[in-house]
């Protein structure tokens, strides 16, 4: 600090110290030696013990030798510093004693050494006169106890000696009063110094915790203590770097727990009191809260937690905000089934239990206060690496000035206009006279009742190249500059200057090493919502307008996150795709980055805006999971869906999976019984039996209506697990006619437009059941314990029929085969537009399906799907019921689709630690609010002045 008699100097412990005037310097070592002795209150100190410490002794000989001077100048300086409305706020508590001293000594001859002491005291206090140095002075006075105690004792000793001076015997009583007042005032000043230090340390703690609501509250307390504006507070905080580093060390070692608990309890109670005082918020909180859900989430049963949290704050406590610990308690009460979802019945039940929202808030605060130690420090050891979070960030136009892009612009491909996903089917086509032409070996198709015409023909494909999906085409984009990853990270760190570092001062690089930086260690110790990780997620924008102004990043192989289970190639190759960089520490919500469409309503705004009309307001979220250290993607309940891309390796399918193949979308109605939806399996086993009955009871093998005729000789175990042996009784007449009807079905299949190159397993099993699976004489079965297996007419029963695979039943929801239901019974089923595909999807108006697009395979006891390196990919929808999905892990090489955006995933690590500050956001918000209030007052005064001038002019004209 560039001051004459005051500043910072190094110490053995790295803490700042006071630079005292030379007169006070000897007292630092003296007081430091007395540290072990308990400190006595100032009122109980014996002034006779202080007097011998003085460098001079006042007696009658001093005055006779001319060792005296006028104290008027120094008294006026002390009065200016400590008394009056213009005095600095931190010194006004000394005004009472200083006023008495100046009033007593003014106009009197005072010993020269006493004047020197008062002059040095004035210089000492003048060091904190500047408005930007108030907080620094208070922190220094609290930290450098030796120098501060030396100053206090020197002043007390001087006043004590003056009281006993024979030459000043006439003013001794007022000096005694001044000494008593000084002891009282200096205790108040030291208490203010301690309060400033505690508030500053608590401010650092809240910054690491990520609690913007309480940060704003503490910032206002600091502004009141210093009597300054938000701009002045920012200037004061920028000079406190040594104390911030000291606070990091204390927090890293989990120290000062009692002080932090006390401050945290006071802050929470102050926040609750402010909410109850606010009339507007109190009116909402005192209501029943029933209108809240309909006001924001009408017609929605389940929503994401970030949307619920934002709506809760805007509806009930918009001005005050919600503290971080209260948010966690509210999340535990509402997001019960999943930490990422909130259901309406849970909210209604919570309101019914609490009675009203205000009672709910009071209960949450009580819960936090009962478990207050858990809100300060984490349970993990201080040295253990731990992750917590705060959201993500996208970097785009701010990097446009770093250099000119060397990447060629992506232009629109020729083709038709964009259509919403799921609605891009072709025009109606002629129906074939024989529906069996659509059936390939191993596939059964059942017509669903629908009014939409179904194309029943198999048009020959003339093109040889699969066109890009027109729904993913985009106009020209302007990507940002090409940058190396390390340069990008360095630019990011240098442009986010911490609030405790003044402009012009160098920043400390937080490079990884054997020992993490102190700030990172402190972050891991604190129970925080901020993440201590260098991992980032890069989303390469292959299509969509999110690519505008995003940099094209070159990722070195050393920065790539490689997982042992991954089969993707290592990073390090150059990419021409613009990149969105997401980190866990920079958006409004902990561990969540929201994507969606912008709206004119200033509610539920996304972090990154998708401009296409088919994007929902809350479309999808990128989530960071601290426990597994993985990034995840979840659909936020969007209308048009978020899709994850299938890889060339097989992935298990489950009942209810929504799959997108070009412009066709289908749903897995029955996966064969391998997934966890057991209740759905029981229903579709019976349904599969009905389908099998239609094969034998109807007159066609292709698109058939279920037969209403009596049962036939087919065991349901053909479509069930081996332990299920439910039979259908048949009559002798039906048994005799079954063979002829089946021959008719096979003839129709062989005479179709597609020649049957092989017989499916289903056809073979229909000719004759395996004799080895027939019930042996006398063997008991599950449903029939009769040792003889005969029909009602006395003839032997046919043995149970069993297929080598469980059937796969799929339903087409859009595309050229919309409304059709297909059952697959072969172990391998290909899907594509080619004539050789088992299930053909061909649209003459939109060729976005490859010849062999994807493959269904029965492996083990599960059906799997794999993409066949198709042009436009095979995708699975994350949520099929307009509700938020569960987050799924994503890793390098995977892709997902949202609206018109196709995004490729890359996991990388930063070359240095980057931890954004919540306090910086709060300070900027306070400064903006102060500007708006000041501008409003100025406009009001101008308006009043104009009104007064007009009134005066009108009065003059009337006269």
Automatic annotation (TrEMBL):
It comes from the Eukaryota. InterPro entries: Cell_Proc_Reg/RNA_Proc, FHA_dom, SMAD_FHA_dom_sf. Residues 593-649, 829-875 form the FHA domain. Residues 31-47, 931-942 have a biased composition (Basic and acidic residues). SMART domains: FHA. Signal peptide: none annotated. It holds the Pfam family FHA. Residues 29-50, 405-434, 454-475, 773-801, 931-959 are annotated as: Disordered. Residues 405-419, 783-795, 945-959 have a biased composition (Polar residues). This is FHA domain-containing protein. It comes from Polarella glacialis (Dinoflagellate). The lineage of its organism: Eukaryota, Sar, Alveolata, Dinophyceae, Suessiales.
């Amino acid at each position: 600090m560039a001051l004459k008699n005051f500043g910072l100097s190094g110490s053995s412990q790295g803490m700042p110290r006071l630079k005292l005037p030379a007169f006070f310097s000897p007292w630092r070592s003296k007081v430091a030696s007395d540290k072990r002795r308990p400190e006595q209150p100032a009122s109980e100190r014996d002034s006779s013990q202080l007097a011998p410490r003085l460098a001079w002794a006042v007696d009658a000989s001093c005055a006779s030798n001319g060792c005296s001077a006028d104290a008027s100048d120094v008294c006026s300086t002390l009065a200016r510093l400590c008394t009056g409305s213009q005095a600095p706020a931190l010194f006004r508590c000394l005004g009472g004693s200083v006023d008495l001293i100046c009033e007593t000594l003014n106009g009197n001859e005072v010993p020269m050494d006493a004047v020197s002491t008062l002059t040095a005291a004035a210089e000492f206090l003048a060091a904190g006169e500047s408005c930007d140095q108030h907080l620094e002075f208070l922190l220094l006075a609290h930290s450098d106890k030796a120098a501060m105690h030396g100053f206090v004792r020197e002043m007390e000793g001087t006043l004590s000696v003056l009281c006993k001076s024979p030459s000043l015997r006439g003013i001794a009583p007022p000096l005694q009063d001044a000494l008593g007042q000084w002891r009282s005032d200096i205790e108040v000043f030291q208490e203010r110094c301690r309060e400033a230090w505690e508030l500053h340390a608590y401010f650092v703690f809240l910054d690491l915790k990520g609690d913007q609501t309480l940060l704003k509250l503490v910032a206002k307390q600091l502004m009141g203590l210093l009597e300054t504006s938000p701009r002045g507070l920012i200037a004061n905080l920028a000079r406190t770097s040594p104390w911030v580093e000291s606070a990091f060390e204390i927090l890293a070692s989990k120290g000062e727990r009692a002080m932090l608990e006390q401050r945290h309890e006071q802050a929470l109670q102050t926040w609750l009191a402010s909410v109850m005082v606010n009339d507007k918020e109190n009116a909402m909180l005192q209501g029943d809260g029933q209108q809240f859900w309909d006001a924001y989430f009408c017609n929605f049963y389940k929503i994401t937690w970030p949307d619920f949290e934002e709506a809760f704050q805007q509806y009930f406590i918009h001005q005050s905000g919600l503290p971080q610990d209260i948010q966690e308690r509210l999340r535990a009460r509402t997001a019960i089934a999943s930490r990422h979802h909130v259901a309406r019945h849970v909210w209604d039940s919570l309101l019914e239990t609490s009675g009203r929202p205000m009672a709910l808030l009071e209960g949450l605060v009580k819960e936090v206060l009962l478990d207050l130690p858990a809100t300060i420090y984490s349970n993990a050891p201080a040295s253990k690496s731990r992750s917590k979070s705060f959201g993500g960030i996208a970097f785009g136009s701010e990097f446009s000035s770093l250099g000119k892009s060397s990447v060629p612009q992506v232009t629109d491909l020729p083709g038709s206009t964009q259509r919403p996903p799921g609605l891009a089917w072709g025009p109606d086509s002629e129906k074939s006279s024989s529906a069996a032409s659509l059936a390939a070996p191993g596939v059964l198709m059942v017509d669903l009742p629908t009014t939409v015409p179904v194309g029943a023909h198999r048009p020959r494909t003339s093109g040889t190249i699969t066109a890009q999906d027109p729904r993913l085409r985009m106009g020209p984009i302007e990507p940002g500059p090409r940058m190396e990853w390390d340069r990008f990270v360095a630019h990011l760190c240098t442009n986010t200057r911490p609030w405790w570092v003044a402009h012009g001062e160098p920043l400390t690089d937080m490079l990884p090493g054997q020992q993490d930086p102190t700030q990172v260690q402190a972050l891991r110790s604190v129970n925080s919502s901020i993440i201590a990780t260098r991992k980032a997620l890069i989303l390469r924008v292959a299509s969509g307008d999110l690519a505008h102004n995003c940099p094209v990043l070159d990722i070195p192989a050393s920065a790539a996150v490689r997982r042992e289970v991954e089969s993707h190639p290592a990073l390090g190759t150059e990419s021409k795709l613009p990149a969105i960089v997401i980190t866990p520490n920079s958006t409004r919500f902990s561990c969540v980055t929201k994507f969606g469409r912008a709206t004119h309503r200033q509610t539920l705004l996304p972090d990154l805006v998708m401009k296409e009309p088919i994007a929902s307001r809350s479309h999808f979220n990128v989530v960071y999971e601290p426990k597994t250290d993985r990034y995840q993607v979840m659909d936020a309940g969007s209308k048009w869906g978020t899709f994850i891309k299938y890889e060339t390796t097989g992935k298990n399918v489950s009942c209810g999976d929504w799959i997108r193949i070009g412009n066709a979308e289908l749903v897995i109605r029955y996966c064969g019984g391998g997934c966890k939806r057991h209740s759905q399996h029981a229903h579709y086993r019976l349904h599969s039996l009905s389908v099998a009955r239609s094969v034998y009871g109807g007159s066609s093998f292709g698109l058939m209506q279920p037969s209403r005729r009596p049962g036939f000789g087919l065991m349901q175990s053909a479509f069930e697990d081996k332990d299920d042996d439910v039979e259908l009784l048949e009559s002798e007449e039906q048994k005799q006619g079954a063979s002829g009807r089946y021959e008719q079905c096979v003839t129709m299949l062989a005479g179709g437009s597609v020649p049957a190159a092989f017989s499916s397993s289903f056809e073979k099993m229909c000719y004759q059941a395996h004799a080895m699976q027939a019930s042996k004489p006398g063997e008991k079965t599950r449903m029939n314990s009769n040792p003889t297996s005969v029909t009602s007419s006395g003839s032997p029963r046919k043995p149970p029929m069993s297929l080598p695979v469980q059937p796969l039943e799929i339903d087409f929801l859009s595309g050229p085969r919309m409304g059709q239901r297909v059952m697959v019974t072969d172990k391998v089923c290909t899907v594509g537009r080619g004539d050789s595909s088992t299930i053909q999807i061909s649209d003459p108006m939109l060729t976005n399906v490859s010849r062999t697009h994807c493959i269904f395979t029965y492996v083990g006891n599960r059906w799997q799907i794999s993409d066949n390196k198709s042009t436009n990919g095979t995708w699975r929808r994350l949520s099929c019921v307009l509700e938020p999905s569960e987050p799924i892990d994503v890793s390098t090489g995977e892709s997902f689709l949202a609206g018109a955006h196709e995004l490729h995933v890359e996991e990388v690590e930063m070359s240095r630690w980057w931890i954004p500050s919540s306090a910086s956001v709060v300070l900027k918000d306070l400064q903006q609010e102060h500007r708006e209030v000041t501008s409003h007052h100025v406009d009001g005064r101008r308006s009043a002045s104009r009104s007064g001038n007009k009134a005066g002019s009108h009065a003059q004209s009337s006269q």
